[in-house]
From TrEMBL:
Residues 4-236 form the ABC transporter domain. It comes from Microbacterium kribbense. PROSITE patterns: ABC_TRANSPORTER_1, ABC_TRANSPORTER_2. Keywords: Amino-acid transport, ATP-binding, Nucleotide-binding, Transport. Gene3D superfamilies: P-loop containing nucleotide triphosphate hydrolases (3.40.50.300). Belongs to the ABC transporter superfamily. The lineage of its organism: Bacteria, Bacillati, Actinomycetota, Actinomycetes, Micrococcales. This is ABC transporter ATP-binding protein. It comes from the Bacteria. InterPro entries: AAA+_ATPase (IPR003593), ABC_transporter-like_ATP-bd (IPR003439), ABC_transporter-like_CS (IPR017871), BCAA_Transport_ATP-bd_LivF (IPR052156), P-loop_NTPase (IPR027417). One of its GO terms (molecular function) is ATP binding.
Amino acid sequence: MSLLELENVSAAYGPVTVLHGVSVNVERGGATGILGANGAGKTTTLRAISGLVKASGRIVFDGKSILGLRPDQVASLGIAHVPEGRGTLSRLTVRDNLLLGAYLRRDRRAITADLDYCLDLFPQLRTRIRSTGAALSGGEQQMLAIGRAFMSRPRLLLLDEASLGLAPSTSANVYSAVGRLRVESGLSMLVVEQNAALAFTLVDNATVLETGRNVLSGTRTELMGMDSIRKAYLGG
Ligand SMILES: Nc1ncnc2c1ncn2[C@@H]1O[C@H](COP(=O)(O)OP(=O)(O)OP(=O)(O)O)[C@@H](O)[C@H]1O
Ligand SMILES: [Mg+2]
C-alpha cells in the first residue's frame, strides 16, 4: 500500500474547476515528482492534500481518507507542506522559526538533536541562527522553510517549487540537502517542480500535469528517455 494515494482528484476555485481528475502516488520512503508548466495545477494538487482547497475524488494517507480534513488535522497526521513562496515568519529568528516547526512535539531532547541536524544540513542557517526571517536571502528562506517542516518530524513532505527564484547553484544546494534528508531520515516526499532536471535528481517517479490533468506518468528513467519530456522540460 502506498503512503499517499490520490485518485481522480478534482478541485475548484469558486466556479472554476482547475483539477480534472488528477492521480498520483507516493510510496513509503519514496519521492514522487509533479512536473508541469505555469498554471498546470501543481500547487492546487498540494493544496488539495493539505486541505487548503476543497477537493473531490480519493485522497488516502496511510490507508485512511484525508479528504475534507482541515489543514491542522492534515498536519497533525504528519504531512508537512512547504508552500510556494516559503511561508517563513519574517519577524521571528531562524531558531524560533525552526522551533515553531516542532510546536506539537513534546520530546524535548529529540527536538534539540533535530535542530542540530537541521543546522548541519543547512550550515548557512547555523551562521544566521539569530537573524530574523526577513534578513535572509531567498535561498536561506527556502532552507529555513524546509528545515521548519523537518522539525515537525513529518511522515510526508510536500515541497512546492523549492527552486523558484533561486540561482542554479543555490537550487542545487537545496535539492542536495533534501536528497540527504530523504536518504538519512527515510522521509517520503511529493515534490512539485517546474525544473524537471532538478526534480530528477531527487524523485524516483513523476507525473506531468497539463491544465489540471495527468498527461504522462512514469519512472524517472522512463520519463527522462522520452523525447517529449526532453524537449519540453530538459532543454532538448
Ligand atoms: N486562489 C486562486 N483563485 C482562483 N484561481 C486560482 C487560484 N490559485 C490558482 N488558480 C488557478 O488555478 C490554476 C492552477 O493553478 P496552480 O497554482 O495550481 O498552478 P501551478 O501548476 O502551481 O502553477 P505555477 O507553476 O505557476 O506555480 C491556474 O489556472 C490558476 O490561475
Ligand atoms: Mg505553483
